[in-house]
Input
Amino acid sequence: MGLVSGLLLLPLAPVRGTLWVADHLLREAERQSGDPRAVQARLAALNRALEEGAIDEAAFEEEEERLLARLDSPVRYTGHRDRGGAS
Output
């Protein structure tokens, strides 16, 4: 990159940096949401909340269904959907 183009793009550096951070946060969130251990830990916490009376049965069932759907999802560890090809 030349000096002139570097200087012209300099005002965009904070925006580019923010977009980079947001992209990495999104990827990490997707990776963690597909991790079965994270989902199982959330299910355990959900069960405790129900037992302690912090949530009602309807809220428990709704969240449990959502979490179990995550376990069945093709999104795993990498955060990318399986496209049917070999790993």
Remarks:
- The chain has four helices and no strands.
- The first helix runs from residue 3 to 9.
- Confidence is low (pLDDT under 50) at residues 77-87.
